[in-house]
Write a structure and sequence with these properties.
Shape: globular
Strand content: 25-35%
CATH architecture: 2-Layer Sandwich
Largest sheet: 5 strands, antiparallel
CATH class: Alpha Beta
CATH topology: Beta-Lactamase
Helix content: 25-40%
Length: about 120
């Protein structure tokens, strides 16, 4: 994504409402700190707050490592991990990371397209 200024709170709210299977939408900075968004109301977290911190830091590191191959392959549009209990999608916005977690049976073919459309609008 370009250096355009984004309203992270608005993006996270839009993403939470775009699909009922989405549990979490947040923006993580390059140091692994949550700067906007969060868990959808009335959804029980799968992890505790300490685990969140570790997940966010690991995600920030993984995104930095992926950038090493941008010259050869171009920038990453999004990354997705399908786990037994969750589907996780990350998208780089400027120097930050949009992190979205959905139920494992969410439509992983359609969900990233919905997310990218919200970011680009």
């Amino acid at each position: 994504m370009s250096d355009k200024i984004f309203d992270y709170g608005k993006i996270c709210s839009s993403i939470l409402s775009v699909d009922p299977k989405i549990r979490f939408a947040g923006v993580i900075n390059e140091r692994g700190r949550l700067v906007a968004g969060g868990m959808k109301e009335s959804v029980e977290p799968l992890e505790n707050e300490k685990d969140d911190e570790m997940i966010f830091m690991e995600l920030a590191l993984r995104v930095k490592m992926r950038k090493e191959f941008d010259r050869q392959f171009g920038p990453v549009n999004f990354a997705m991990a399908s786990r037994e209990r969750a589907l996780a999608i990350s998208v780089v916005i400027n120097e930050d990371i949009l992190y979205v977690v959905a139920e494992p049976d969410a439509d992983y073919g359609l969900l990233p397209k919905k997310i990218l459309k919200i970011i680009q609008s």
